Fold this protein.
Amino acid sequence: MADFTASVFQNEYLAAGTTDVHAVVSVTCTGAGSAGSSGGEAAVMLIIDTSGSMDLPSSKIKSARHAAKVAVDEVLDGTWFAVVSGNTTATMCFPASTGMVRMDAANRSAAKDAIDQLRPGGATAMGTWLMSATELFKLTPATQRHAILLTDGKIEGEEPSVLRNALQWAHGQFQCDCRGVGSDWRVDELREIATALLGTVDIVAQPEDLAADFEAMMHEAMGRGVAQAALRLWAPQGSEVEFVRQVAPEVRDLTSTATRVSDLIIEVPTGAWGDETRDFHIAVKVPTAPVGSERLAARAEVVVGDQVVAKGLVRAVWTDDANLTTRIDPAVAHYTGQTRLGEVIQEGLAARASGHEEEATRLLGEAAKLAAESGNEATTRLLEKVVDVVDAEAGTVRLRKDVAKTDEMALDARSTKTTRIRREQAP
Amino acid sequence: MSQTTLCPNGHQSQDPEWCDTCGARLGAAPAPVPTSQPPDSSAAPARPATPATPAIDCPHCGTPNEAGALFCEGCGYDFTTGQAPPTTEPTGAVEASEPPPAPAAQGWVVVVEVDPAWYELKGQLADHPCPPVSSSTIALTASTALIGRTSQSKQLHPEIALDGDTGVSRRHAQLVCAADGSWTVVDLGSSNGTYVVPAGEAPSHDVEALPVGIPRPLADRDAIYLGAWTKLTVRGPGG
C-alpha cells in the first residue's frame, strides 16, 4: 500500500495589512507498487508517427520500430495495451481491430510482429491520433491510462481545431508523454499536448537513442502503482488561491485544471504516482488579520480515491517584527527562481527566433544567472550550447552563431525541468 | 450531530484547531471528535456527503447514487417517476465542468473498420476475400463529409475514402452535420445501399437500406454499413 507524506516550507510571518501567503508543499510517495496493483487496472498505448517524413531518413522509422518493441518488453502482463500508427488518420497497428488487449506472451509477440509492419506515408495529424487514443482507452475498464506519443514533425493536413477538440476529449482521460525525434517538430505543439495531459515533453535528437528513452518511459509508467492522486486545497473564506503549480521535478501550472469541490475547497489532478517526490508551490491571498493573530491560510491534502492520505498546513501569523516578515523562505525563493528560469528561456528563444537579439540576450542572460545561482547544472549545460556565458553572476551572455537546432530545441523542451533546492539552503 | 467549536469570528467549526470557515486559530484544547469520520474530511462545509456504500444504482446508466436522491447524478434519471432523461442530451451531466462543447461539426471522428460480420452478409459484392480486420480513425472537420472511392479521372477525393472496397460507389453517401451539432447520413444513390445499425447491435439480413436522398439522424456510436466489408462509426465528444 502506497504511503504518502507531505511537508510544508514557508515563512508564515506576514507584515501588518498584508495578504500574500506562499508555501512549498513537498509530497513524497513510497511503496507505490507497480501499475495496476492498487485495485484499478492499467492501460498503456504507444502512438507512433508513421507519416511520410519518418522515412527521411529511414533510420527514423527503423529506430521507432525498435524503440516500440523495446517498450513492449517493459509492459507488465495483464496491462491493457495497444499500438496506434499515426499519419493522416490514426490506424490500429496492434491489435488490428478497434480496441486494446491484455498483455500476455502471445500478444507481446504479436505486437512486435505488427510493429515490424509499420510503414511511413501520409501527413501528421496528432489531434486525430489523440481522439482515437481517447476512444480506445474508454473501451477498457482501466483507470490508470498512459500513452507515449512519438512524432518527427509538426501538425499538417489537419485543422488546428482538431487538436483543440482532441485535448478537450482527452483531458482527464489519460496521461501522455510526448517525444520528438529529429528537429522538424515543434516544441510548443508537443508541450501543449503534454501540459494538457499531465505528461512530459523531450527531444530525442538522434533516432538511435529512442530505444533507451522508450524503455525508461515505459519502465517508469509501469512503476506507478497509484493510479490517480489529487491535491485538494482548502483556503479560508474570502481568500483566493492565486496559483497551484508543481515545481519539481518540472514546472507544471495546475491552476487552470482546478475543479471546485466546495466554496472553500478546490482540487487539482496530479495523475499517477510511483515512488517519487514532487514539490508544489501554492500562493493564496487571505484576508488580513490584526497583528498578533494567526490563521490557517491553506490546508493541502493529498487525496487518493477520496481518501486523504497526507496533509500539510500553511499558516499565516501577522507580526510587527520586520526581521521575521522580510525573510523569504528558501524553498519558495528557489522555486520562484526555477519557474522564472523556464519562462525566460522560452521567451528568450522566442525573441531570438523572431530576430530580437537584444531582447534574447537579456532574457537568456537572466536565465544563465538563475541557472548558475540555483545550481541547475543540466540547464546551464544546455544554455552554454546556445549562448557564451561571459559572466554568470551578472547574467552577461553573448548569443552564439551557428547553434544546432536540436540544441536550441533541447533547451526549450527541458526549460521547465527544475533542480531540487540544495540541501544547505533547506530550512 | 458532531460537536463543534465556536470560532472568535462566530463560525461553528468541526475542526477543533482551525476554524473551518476563516482559518482562525481556535486554541490548543482540541474538542473531542465523536464521529468516526476524520475531522478533515468533515471540515468541508458545502461538500456533498460521500457515503461509503451508495444506496441505489441508477437503473438507466448504472451510476451509484445516494439513498433518497431524486435524480441520478450521472444521467438525470428521475428516481421518483422512473422517467429516463431526454435522449437528446449527452449522458454526461458529471462532465458539465469540462470545457464548453465545441461548435457544430467539430470534435467528431469516424472510425473506419473492416467488419467480417458484414462480409458474411454482403461479401458477394466483392471480387476477393475479406481483408484482415483493420481500424482507422478520421477526424471530421467540415460540416459535410463525402463517403466514396477516390477517382483521379473524375477528380473525386472523398473525405472518407474507402478505396479498397469495390462494393462502395464512387459517390456513395454523405455525412452532414446539422445546426445542433448532430450528424446525419444520406445515401447519394449508391449501387449497393447504405445501412444504419444502432449502437451495440450486430448487422443482420433484416436491416434495410436507407432510402436514397433522405437524411438519417445518427446517434453516438450508431454504425453505418456499406460495400462488402466496411463499417463506419461516428463518435462524438460526449461518449
Observations:
- The helical segments of chain B are 116-122.
- Chain B touches chain A through 39 residues (CB under 8 Å).
- The CA atoms of residues 41 and 47 of chain B lie 9 Å apart.
